[in-house]
Structures are given as structure tokens and as C-alpha cells.
């Protein structure tokens, strides 16, 4: 029951004419930060809402630690969720907002202080919510989700509105929580964010799974776009030798060559065999932004 694994299996949600989520299956492991990534309208929020029993699936099932959310004996102690920017009674202080939730959920009152400290809001404990910045509201939302000390944390676009320092803070917090063995599932439509935040990625487009794996695996799955950057004083000899091995060679304009179709060791071997001197041999990995665009292109029609 406490393993914290999330399993999404054949999950489907149809609204009138829209297949918001379409036979989606993936797993989320405990002890890791999983980025749930997709362009706007891909179906992320709908998926998270089905996971949390807020939307009824048309088909399929989502379980947390082997049970549907609705069947978890103490859901708030098992799963914390931040689905949109935290809202609270405007005149209430941050600490009182959390104490009210503790009282309603039956959590000990001291959890409010602990959760506020966890998100670094202790100095603003007695300030009213209406004076909180968007970043502070996001932090308060996470504090509220953590009140039950949950094994699983689900966050929908938590970095929205955060400045770079706020995003850094969020990354450190989520990595710490994952390091404690918790399952962290965090959605975003922004790649740059996920590149910083996530260990694993689940990428969806138009309600369907596009890729799942570690950040590195997802990158490697796009191996055809990996290029080898090479520099040599014998450009013509090396180009001819590589082309003979079916590699594609493109001058980079700065004196270097970009080679695709063969990996870096192969370029080294070809150069050695052709007695070509190398001054540089590096792997140019595509950035996640490019991978993401390639993966979701054409599937992410604006809906
Ligand atoms: N209650 C609803 N009724 C009808 N269509 C809906 C409803 N909720 C979502 N949709 C549609 O389902 C699709 C997926 O929406 P969803 O909000 O899950 O995507 P998302 O990936 O979270 O996108 P965003 O990042 O823009 O929030 C969209 O086309 C959306 O318009």
C-alpha cells in the first residue's frame, strides 16, 4: 500500500468532440521526480484530475500504490496535490490558512508550522494571503499539499509564475522530497523547466503517450538527431572517409564539421584509419526543446 507507484492504464476521457485523453498508459516510480510534459491542451490536467478522482474516466484506470484514489483509506495522508495556484481566504494569514486545513483534515496543528517551514514561508507566516506574491502562493499551495506528510505529491504546472530563483527553489525542494522516497509527479508545458526538474519524463501529445523514460533515455531515443562535432586540418580527407561510411557531413561555418549517421567512436576510427589528425571530437546532444518539438510535432494540433 505504501509503495507510492502510480500506474495509469488505458486511461481515456472523451468530452463531446474531444478525446482529451486517449488510451494513455504510463507508470511513475517512487523516489524520483517525473515530469509530465506536453504542449497546451495535450491532456495533462485531465489526466491528473482522473488520477485524483476529480474527473471520471471514459475508460481505463489509474492507481496509486495499487489502489484507485477513491479507495485509498486516508487519501490526504497518502497523496498531496496542487492543481492550480493556491487560493485561500484573502484576509487569512498563511499560517492560519494551513491550520484551518489541518483542523478540517484531522492533522496535528504543528504540521502547519512544519509545512510552512518546509516551503520557506515561516517569515511570512503572519502576513495575509492577499499580500502574497504568486510565488508565495505557489509555495503555500505546496505547504498545504504536504500537511498530511504524503508519500505521493502531484503538482500541475507548479512553476507557473515563478522567477528563476523560485524555479531553482522548487527543483531543490522536489529533489529533496523525492530523495526521501516520495513519488513526485509534476506537469509542465515548458521543456526548459522539466530539463531542470525531472529525473524521468512522460511526454504526451493530443491525449496520447509519445515517450516515457529517463531524461537521458528520451534524448537517446532521438539518437538520429545526435551529431558529432569534429575539427581537423584535413577537412577534405576526413569528409571523404566519413561519407564512404554513409555518414552525413556538414561544415559548421566555424571550421568544424557536424557529422550525423555515425557515433563519435566511429568517427575516431575512421579518422585513425585515414591517418587524419583530429583537433576536436565531441558529441552534440540535441537539447530537450528540440526533442520535444520533434516528438510532439503534428500531434499537438491546437484543440
Ligand atoms: N470539462 C471539459 N469539457 C470539454 N473539453 C475539455 C474539458 N476539460 C478539458 N477539455 C479539453 O480537453 C483537452 C485537454 O485539456 P487539458 O486541460 O487536460 O490539457 P493540458 O495538457 O492540461 O493543457 P494546458 O496546459 O493548456 O492546461 C483540451 O482540448 C481541452 O479543451
From TrEMBL:
Q: Gene3D superfamilies under this entry?
A: P-loop containing nucleotide triphosphate hydrolases (3.40.50.300)
Which InterPro entries does the record cross-reference, listed alphabetically? AAA+_ATPase, ABC_transporter-like_ATP-bd, ABC_transporter-like_CS, P-loop_NTPase
Specify the ABC transporter domain's residue ranges: 6-231
UniProt keyword list? ATP-binding, Nucleotide-binding, Transport
Q: What CDD domains has UniProt attached to this entry?
A: ABC_BcrA_bacitracin_resist
Provide a Gene Ontology MF annotation, just one. ATP hydrolysis activity
Family that this chain belongs to: Belongs to the ABC transporter superfamily.
Q: What is this protein called?
A: ABC transporter ATP-binding protein
Which organism is this protein's natural source?
Answer: Phytohabitans rumicis
Taxonomic lineage: Bacteria, Bacillati, Actinomycetota, Actinomycetes, Micromonosporales
